Amino acid sequence: MHKTSKPDEPAAAQIVFDDFAKIDIRAGVIVSAEPFPEARKPAYRLAIDFGPAIGVKKSSAQITEHYALNDLVGVSVMAVVNFPPRQIGPVRSEVLVLGFPDEEGRIVLATPTAVVPKGARLA
Predict the structure, then answer these.
(1) Which CATH superfamily is domain 25-109 in?
(2) What is the DSSP letter of 114?
(3) Contact 76/33 with Cβ under 8 angstroms?
(4) CA-CA distance, 62 to 68, in Å (whole number)?
(5) pLDDT, tens only, 19-39
(6) How confident is the model at residue 1 (pLDDT cuts 50, 70, 90)?
(7) For residues 50 and 74, is the Cβ–Cβ distance under 8 A?
(8) Mean pLDDT of the chain
(9) Which of 26, 48, 56, 46 is closest to 91 using CA atoms?
(10) What are the boundaries of each domain within the chain?
(11) What are phi and psi of 20, to 5 degrees?
């Protein structure tokens, strides 16, 4: 599980641009969303289409507080596509969907504010 920070915490230690450039963040579109009752914390199973070069990847996302399953298909998201897959219960999570915690710690998806091509890399 990744660490979430508080809004009033200082920025993390500086890194060089080459370190940041190693992280491959891409835009994708959710093509399916299913319940994930086996998860320790409430979560959904997602399939996200990143276009022909990367394809459809699976992920688990703890976004049940702000999003209903029926509303997720077609939503554009941002995800790290070059982390090694992680086994989360019966789900092999292939990408890390990005989001920010709200004031109660519930995750809000990081999404492009305009239409971008599937697979577009964060610049």
Answers:
(1) Nucleic acid-binding proteins (2.40.50.140)
(2) S
(3) no
(4) 12
(5) 999 999 999 999 999 999 999
(6) very low
(7) no
(8) 94
(9) 46
(10) 25-109
(11) -65, -40
